[in-house]
Write the structure tokens for this entry.
Amino acid sequence: PHRRRGQHERDERTMAEPVRAGGGEQQREGEHGQTGGDRARALPLNRWRQRQSKAAPPSGLRWRELEDFDARADRLWESLRGDFALQCVRDSRYLQWRYRQVPGPRHRIFALLREDNEIAALAVLRPGEGLDRPAQITELLAPAGAPAGTWRALIRGCLAWAWQRGESSLQCWMFSHCAAHPHLLEAGFFSEATPDYRLLVRPTFLEERPAAAPAPPFSAAAWLEQVRRAVYEPSSWYLSIGDADLF
């Protein structure tokens, strides 16, 4: 996303250290070593594997791979669509189009399922293609208010998948204001500032008033201020790697 220089808000992505890295825990103290006042740690995933080898999802949840997106994905979307003012509609129709009706490596779909077989949290993973294109978490979806144990189990499942495949690294984009961000850091991911990406935005929200409502007097200044507040406020946004047309 576009980041205006001089703003105190930082748009960030989060990446994993190489899965097969050796040695103990490392402390990264570079320019981007601070995130919201907390220093991000770089944890080689062989050490992560030792820590998590006996870990299991919270009681009542189970980790399963899905073949496609069905109506359960729609219900998950309904539970989280209000978390951010500006985000792509991630219903089953979109997710099926984005991750199943595409060429290239087949994305893997994993979910934490509740006892009623509904989806509590969802991850979409893209296999890596050598050192130049690492494995990616293209979607990491759960309601912002999901328990910490749910977020941890979701991220842990993604890391286990990368480890089992022998991936060289695992990458995820996540803004620091998102609920998943501290759990990614806790799992051993570290933060790096994003390069300057650009978004083309068509603000359609002014067109969504009921047809019967009278049109207010038009004020260009008021309209631009409404656009500015909605678009340029970083905490309004949710983006993932899947939103980019480069991946």
User: Anything to note?
Assistant: Confidence is low (pLDDT under 50) at residues 1-13, 16-44. The first strand starts at residue 12 and ends at 15. The helical segments are 45-52, 71-80, 92-99, 148-165, 181-186, 220-231. The longest helix spans residues 148-165.
